[in-house]
Design goal:
This protein is an alpha/beta fold. The protein has 14 helices and 13 strands. Helix 2 crosses helix 3. The longest helix has 16 residues. The chain is globular, with a radius of gyration of 22 Å.
Length: about 350
């Protein structure tokens, strides 16, 4: 299943891409705009650009910066089909969606005058504004240091594919088709293949604060897998709740850390030990930089390469340990994963 997030400037053509993917490619559509509109109506407020911004920011501040897109992704997963999440507006939403397998971010832009002409023709409840107001609205949403507010500029910069929509629909459809041929039909590399297996293993995890998985491979053969879960025979977080302990990270941040579970890397190494499998010279695939304890186990069992999807904000110590032990550490993405402290 592929999930495509769509971001871009106001009136640039996000909806045009959505329509094409839904009608021509069978994608299922999930909209941040519709999600916020329902909440606006529930609160008894008028639906306009101001309330869209106000309520969207409030939802992010109340829950988390990625709350809306996480809720939509959960719905998308239930569909079991290729999905689109329209109107991604915060870099924290992008970061959260990057945790999902087979996620790609599309961005679309066009000349401001062309975009304004399009929205006046569209004539939705939020589009009856002057050109000056249109540009002011966009400027308000373009940049922000507040994680709960829109930052379209940062989202566009993080996009996997950027489309220019100054032309007609046919031109845009052709650009999208070229990209789809790359992401839907390409053969994965070995690293992508094994990382996808690690992400599949993570679906067995039993702690909703850290659903991660791990695969250990040698000579392109899977040796063992692991996922986050309680020791055998002990209750799971998903069933009885978390066992929290206050943790002060090396970067100075503080979190309520769940200590009920065994990390995915630890579980995989334990499986290898129980089955008498040597991990000498193997490669380990996991979601983010292993913690200090996992790093020590990885070094001691002879693993020589660790591949992560992204960096963990408290992973500097592990990175240094791997460097000293001559364990090669690689990342699919440079984004830094923050600990979920909600």
């Amino acid at each position: 299943m592929i999930t495509i997030g769509i971001t871009g400037t106001l009136g640039a053509g996000k909806g045009t891409i959505v329509d094409y993917l839904v009608k021509e490619k069978g994608f299922v559509h999930f909209s941040v705009r519709d999600f916020i509109t329902k909440e606006i109506e529930r609160r008894g407020l008028p639906v306009n650009r101001d309330t869209m911004t106000l309520v969207g920011n409030d939802l992010r501040a109340t829950h988390s910066p990625s709350y809306i897109t996480e809720a939509l992704y959960a719905e998308a997963q239930l569909s079991g089909k290729n999905c689109i999440i329209e109107s991604v507006r915060s870099p924290y939403e992008v970061l959260s969606l990057r945790e999902c397998s087979n996620f790609y971010l599309f961005a679309v832009d066009a000349d401001p005058k062309i975009r304004y002409e399009r929205i006046t023709q569209r004539g939705s409840s939020t589009d009856h504004v002057s050109f000056e107001t249109f540009m002011a609205n966009e400027a308000r949403e373009m940049t922000s240091d507040d994680p709960n507010k829109q930052n379209l500029k940062a989202c566009i910069e993080q996009a996997d594919f950027v489309f220019s929509n100054d032309g007609n629909f046919e031109d845009l459809h052709a650009e999208v088709e070229v990209v789809l041929s790359k992401i839907m039909y390409k053969r994965p590399s070995w690293d992508e293949y094994f990382m996808e297996l690690a992400n599949t293993a993570s679906k067995r995890a039993t702690c909703d604060r850290g659903r991660s998985g791990c695969v250990i491979v040698k000579n392109k053969q899977v040796l063992v897998t692991g996922y986050v879960g309680s020791p055998t025979g002990l209750p799971h977080c998903d069933d009885v709740g978390h066992l929290f302990r206050k943790t002060i990270h090396s970067d100075g941040s503080v979190s309520n850390h769940c200590v009920r579970t065994v990390h995915a890397e630890q579980n995989a190494i334990c499986q290898a030990a129980r089955r008498g499998i040597s991990l000498d010279g193997a490669t380990l695939y996991c979601r983010m930089t292993p913690c200090r304890t996992c790093a020590m186990l990885i070094i001691n069992c002879g693993i020589k390469r660790v591949v992560c999807e992204r960096k963990y904000h408290d992973g500097k110590e592990s990175e240094e340990m791997f460097k000293l032990a001559n364990v090669k550490l690689e990342f699919f993405h440079d984004e830094i994963q923050q600990y979920n402290n909600q």
